[in-house]
Each structure stands twice: as structure tokens, then as C-alpha cells.
Amino acid sequence: MYEQSLSDRFIEIFDCKPDIISTAPGRVNLIGDHTDYNQGFVLPAAIHMTTTIAVSRRVDREVHTFAQGFAKSLDQFPLDNIETCSKETWPNYIRGTIKYLQDVSKNFSGINILISGDIPQGAGLSSSASLEIALLRAISELYQLNIKGIEAALIGQKAENAFVGCNCGIMDQLVVALGLQGNAMLLDCSDLSYQDIPIPEGSTILVVNSNVKRELVDSEYNARRKQCESVAEMLSVSSLRDLDIQNLYEAKDLLSDELFRRARHVITENRRTVDAAKAMKDNDLKLLGKLMTESHKSLRDDYEVSTKELDFLVDIISTEMGGTGGVRMTGGGFGGCVVSIMPKEKISSVICSVKTYYSKFSGIEADFYQCTASSGAFRRATRA
Fold this sequence. Notes:
The chain has 384 residues and is α+β, with helices and mostly antiparallel strands.
């Protein structure tokens, strides 16, 4: 029914049927934040919320895009002169992705694009990566470009880094492209090798949106990346991945307190992430919970990307779970969501507690997403 309504809407806008419909998931990061751009480990999962893109060929070299859910929803640009859109942000994810796709293959011409989806904007659930990867899968199928998942992830990352202006790592795009249903992904960002890690039996993922909005491009996200690069340069390593905690403490006198704490978060978070993957394999929710608690404290105190609202949500959920699962902030920070893994029978009481106390504390109503680990766009079929 949804696909039919999307096809009908496509016909209304472009006066033709879509040739390909492609879907890409959002993602939530279970543990391992701000490690990806430091060549470290991350443990995200693709989730059931999606971006869906319908496309058709054009006879010219124009790209015409319509995005449902945006006030200014139309964008047009020529393939041969792709420039930044100064009026709106969302078109730049499309423009940048297509611009850098042309570095890989020029064997395509004009495209009609209709975008729809149910991933909440600005919540830290990778709506932008989902858009990029869904688009790349659709164009690849439309023009038989044979783009692979890792290749698509690198194109999407380059679009955000070089065109949009957000210096994100590779995590979001790669799990959105290559995640596996029922599994998280332990990704080594230094060489892009990954393992599928089963979600613990009998547990579920609950994401709670604080509804404190943040814009990564306009936040201190890029500043954190520069701080990490500064430490690596000062200590003569290519990235913080090459340091262990002993190396860092030996060099403590060379660093400001702030730079020391930034690096300490990254180094300890890498260790926690690898340990968390093992805990999930062993179905050890208690150990996983301990590691997630340590991660949140590190993000709050050493990396300073949490907020009072996120801290409050973590405290409520942790208290209600009583040591039977884990909870932490997730994503870039400065707002957005917390992620928790818990036994399925705990969901109702956790949601009830948050509804009871969070709005009294913050004046904001939280949103809840009980997430299913989903397959990435390049591990699922497109539809004609």
C-alpha cells in the first residue's frame, strides 16, 4: 500500500512511473561514539525506520528532486554543474552524493527523484546517511552501475565531509548500506572490516528521543574531530587508534586537560566497544549494561557532548531496568536520543517511567522507538 501510494505520488509529480524504488534504514549506535573518525571500533545496528527513494530516468542531464515532508520540497540542478544550495540544507545531501558518484562512474544521465521516509530528523538516527545510501542504491540499479556497499558508504561519507560540511566518519553510511537483520555490526573503521553481532536473545532495542534538537554541522562535532587530530599530531601517530591508555598517560604533561580527556574517551571507548561485542555474543546483558554506563559517563565527562536531558533519561531508564540491560546517549550528542538494550518484558515499565518524569524535568515530551535490527540497503532488494 505504501509503495503504491509512493508510486501514485511519483506519477502526480513527474508524469511517469518510477523505474526503481530503493529503501535504506536508519541506524542507532549501541556503543562506540566519536571513535569512527579516529579509525576506531563502533557497534551500530541498522533499524527498521527507513528512507524510501523512487527514481526514473530523464532524457536530459537535469536532476529533479521532490522531498516529502519539507516546506520547500523541490530542487533542480544540472549534472554538469553541481553547486551548493544556499537556501535549504536537505538538497545538499542529494547534490553532494550525485557529485561524488560521478567520480566513480559517469555512466548516467538525468534523474527524477521522490524522497519519503519515517526517520525523525535531527534525532541522531542517521536520516542523512539513509538518504545518501538509498539514493546511491537507486541510481546504481537505475543505470546498472554495479556500485557495491562499501563503495556507496565512502561516496556518502565524502558527500557529507566535502559538500555538506560535516566531518563525520564512515560508520553511519556503512551500517546503513551493509547491516544485517537481527544483528549489530562490529566495524573496524581503520580497514572497514566488520562482523555481524547477533542482538542478545530475548532482548530489544529501545530508542528514546529527548526531542532536544541539534545540528551536527552547526555544533561542536567538527571541533571534537579537530581536537582528536591535534592530539594525534602532537603525539606523532596517524590517529588515536594507534594509542593505548598507557601511551596517553605517559604523554599527559604534553596535553591540556581538555585534549587529554578527549583522547581518553576515544581510547577507552574503543576497548569498551570490542568488549561489548563479546558480551552480546555471550548474551551477557549485565556486562553489556556496565559497558554502556561507562560509555555514557565518558561521553558526558571526557568528551562533553551530552546534555542534562540525555543524562536524566539515562538515569531514569537505568533505574527502571535495575541492572538487567544497558542505556547511554547515542549519536553525535548535543541532543538527540538515548539507546537502551533490555529484556522485552521491561519495555512497558521503562516507557511508563519516562513518560511520568521526563516532561516534568525538561518541559519536553519524549518519543519512543522500539527498534528492530534491519538489513542495509545493499543487503536487500530494490523494487521496480
